[in-house]
Amino acid sequence: MVDFNRFTLANGLRVLVHEDDTTPMAVLNILYDVGARDEEQDKTGFAHLFEHLMFGGSVNIPSYDEPLQRVGGENNAFTSNDITNYYITLPATNLETAFWLESDRMLSLAFSEKSLETQRNVVCEEFKQRYLNQPYGDVWLKLRPLAYKEHPYRWATIGQDLKQIEDAKMDDVKAFFQKHYNPQNAIMVVGGNVKTAEVKALAEKWFEPIPAGERYLRNLPTEPQQKEARQETVTAEVPLNAIYMAFQMPDRVDKDYQVYDLLSDILSQGQSSRLYNSLLKEQQLFSEINAYLTGSIDQGLFIVEGKLVEGVTMEAAEAAIWKELNAIAAEEVTVDELTKVKNKSESIIVFAEMSLLDKAMNLAYYELLGDANLLNTEIHKYHDVTSTRILEVAQRTFVKEQSSILYYLTAQDA
Amino acid sequence: MKKIFTFAIAVLFVQAVSAQKPDRSQRPKPGPAPVIAFADPVVYKLPNGITVLVVENHKLPKVSASYSIDAGPIAQGAKAGVISLLSGMLNEGTVTKTKARYDEAVGQMGAEVGVFAGGGRASALTRYFSDAFLLMADALRNPSFPQASFDKLKSQSLTNLKSNERSATAISGRVVNALSFGLNHPYGAFETAQSLNSITLDDVKAAYKKYVTPSRGYLTFVGDIKPEVAKVLAIKAFGNWKGAVLTFPVLAKVSNPVKTEVDVVDVPNAVQSEITVTNLIDLPMGSPDYHAVLLANQILGGGADAKLFRNLREKHGFTYGAYATTGAGRGQSTFSATASVRNEKVDSAVVEFLKEIKVMRTEKVSAEVLQNAKNLYNGSFALGLENPGRGAGFASSILINNLPKDFYRTYLQKLNEVTADDVLRVSKKYFGHDHARVVIVGKTGQFLPGLKKMGFDVREFDSYAVPLKRK
Question: Which of A212, A282, B82, B258 has the CA that lies 20 to 30 A from A82?
Fold first, then answer.
């Protein structure tokens, strides 16, 4: 159970406070309600590039890292297709420094050409290091546009290609900031050895003077129901053939989200799961096999992916996966199977309450979904899943005409 | 009078404004250093030599246990890979449970249980913990070592090796250690198809007998458990376990290059090149230099505000990140500075690496830079204590490294006493600018001419650290 208090500033900034006096530390987490899904088609990778620029100095503070380090703090950030999240951990006695730093960059950035130039290069190197220089690193650059035709999830957070990042202009940067980085589009969570009254006073001092800005109204295209099977083959310098199967599924707040999650666990969570037992241990067709959800806020994907044992054909591998998917869509899972994955979900939720930072990030994320308290009620939704609901979901999901399948072949097998 | 009156108004006015408009040009005053508190574990020894440590923490309904065998570096020689195969085989079933039944039992509880040649780990919700813990002990004590599993794991290892054939990152990891320590040193040896093919199931069984044992073993419990309960469990699981007696190996010292050299490996398909600037060091944790080295490493390459990151990433945009790490421990360890760099900027990046190291060795860091590094350490030390297992980690580190009992209680105090002169002295001693090895794995065509032109002594190797003939 993660307790919290909640208030909203006059400019629309939502603030949550989690008091935990067992630590001398504090966390300040700010979630901006903007991700790669909010980018324009010809300017992809921008939300992430922008995250880098947020460390290039703000209007009154030339260096972000140095003053924070001086008070014993650490920070980082990440961008996803849905959100951009920034966080600071520091000794609670220095909490005000975090307010000073974060409020200044919400107020305005320095917008230096030099910083833009450098971060364009850095992001291009990140693109190479994480997507091009890793075996299978570009899978999602291929799979997304296969599975999504309308929704902006069709591009990856890093962007569609390096060229669009290289072409980013200062005017684009400023416009993006105006549109998305204002109090109305953010959720702040302060946690740790803090008191709500103290946080409220600091928030009013440092954040309330920031102009509210315009509320960004998201209006993204809905991904239409898929009606035809899609398949694509790519070859690359990779060690083993691999298969990626994507199925359409509903959004994050759908009542069946937890059913999908348990379905994926029954298929591949741990070494006693169905796909692992059948395809890896018994039939020895795969050296790795996994089923999971992309977990996106808008309509997501249910993914099954595997690396084939050398000598196994793609057709045989795919047929073996379908056989398991059809089996789980034909008959209810057993009581033991369901108990097992519910136990696992409970463990994961309990273990995730360990760290202050995790708690703060989760509160912000669930608040974005509609209510931070969803974090505390999530476990009940898992307990309420029945084998009948799993069967229904499997039947709706594992349909050939709603699948997007990527064959990823080693160059020598091409 | 009037004058004074106006002044008073002005003060009021200023205050009124400042309540709304904070002065953003001034950084808030830092507070006092956080108060550090951590619990010492309950420690006792089982008759067979296992040291048991228990940290009680009832905040969440979960318990974790780990078993760790302090065997030191293991020389695998021509059988390189036998220890990792042993690790795999320990998870392939026990004499009373097939792998399938074992995995099912773990899965059913939603627990995590894993074992390897150096020990094991079990964590679970409190209500399942004792069962999960006994499963871990069963895997360590009674492995069944089926031949079919061995054949499968061996073929997977061979596939993995092959799959990394052209990965610059994997090649770099292998070659850096091989060149630094030499092939005969436990840290320098690596798996090859030949070494893997030579390993038999009997080799694995022999390694098991020799290294998986209660001798030099540390068993740690952390979480929602009482020390009495932990003790009963420890005795039930391991009390009557017997095994080989381990002694910590003493290894011959390896020297650094007489003069800084550049060793390159060509990976024509590499999108980036892996640069490592490294040298061997001797730095026991109990050394009087230890805390100063931590700070020197932090200042050079500890993160986003350190010299390497600011230079190679933020100033030049050569890389996504550049860092330094300095090891410490009972045997030789390494200092190394690393980055994945654009192929065409490798020569410039090497120059910047060496320049920053040289600056550390020749110039005193400013009081401000030193203070920042100290503050960061104070913060991260406090943050690390959020993990209730940290106290147990400290206690076992004190035992293993033969440190004074108050090592971690005085850790921050000693760190805060380090001076700029200390940082300069240890940088000179441990960061080997003049006796370093620069290993670059990447697309040599794009940087070799540049490096040679700069006058570096460049040697070429294949991806298994075998020297190529000099042209």
Answer: A212
pLDDT at B470: 62
Q: How far apart are CA A279 and CA A327, in angstroms?
A: 13
Tokens standing for B355? 């320049």
DSSP 3-state of B217 = strand
**What structural domains does chain A harbor?**
5-206 (3.30.830.10), 230-413 (3.30.830.10)
The neighbour count for residue A284, using CB atoms within 10 Å, is: 12
Yes or no, beta carbons of B340 and A125 under 8 Å apart: yes
> For residue B168, which residues of chain A lie inside 8 Å, CB to CB?
133
| CB atoms inside a 10 Å sphere around CB B7 | 10
Residue A345 DSSP SS3: helix
Tally of CA atoms within 13 A in the half-sphere of A6 that contains its CB: 14
Our CA-based measurement puts residue A341 at a distance from the nearest CA of chain B, in whole angstroms, of 7
**Distance separating alpha carbons of residues A401 and A397, to the nearest angstrom:** 10
User: Residues of A with CB below 8 A from B59's CB?
Assistant: 22
Tokens of B413: 């105090």
Contact predicate B295/B370, CB 8 Å: yes
CA angle in degrees (0–180, nearest 5) for A56-A61-A62: 50
User: Which chain B residues have a beta carbon less than 8 Å from that of A281?
Assistant: 99-100
CB B222 within 8 A of CB B55: yes
Show the tokens assigned to B334.
């390494």
Find, among B276, B327, B290, the residue nearest to B73 by Cα. B327
Query: What would the pLDDT profile of A294-316 be if each residue is shown by its tens digit?
Result: 999 999 999 999 999 889 999 99
CA distance between the termini of chain A:
52
Residue A262 CB burial class (10 angstroms; 0-12, 13-18, ≥19)? buried
Q: Measured between CB atoms, does A90 come within 8 Å of chain B?
A: yes
Q: Using CB atoms, which residue from A130, A287, A343 is nearest to B159?
A: A287
Measured between beta carbons, which residues in chain B are less than 8 angstroms from residue A92? 34
Contacts of B159 in chain A (CB under 8 A): 239-240, 287, 310
In angstroms, the CA B190 to CA A374 distance is 49
Per-residue model confidence as pLDDT tens digits over A236-253: 888 889 999 999 999 999
CB < 8 Å from B in window 1-20 of A = none
* Domains along the sequence of chain B with CATH: 42-238 (3.30.830.10), 261-461 (3.30.830.10)
Residue of B nearest to A120 (CA): B317
A25-32 vs A186-192, strand pairing mode: antiparallel
Q: Going edge to edge, which strands form the sheet with B458-461? A: B319-326, B332-342, B272-282, B437-442, B261-266, B458-461
Half-sphere exposure of A278 (CA within 13 A, CB side): 17
B26-50 residue pLDDT tens: 999 988 877 777 888 999 999 999 9
Whether ipTM exceeds 0.85: no
Report the chain B residue with the minimal C-alpha distance to residue A89: B383
CA distance B23 to A322: 64
Q: Which of A259, A89, A128, A283 is nearest to B384 (CA)?
A: A89
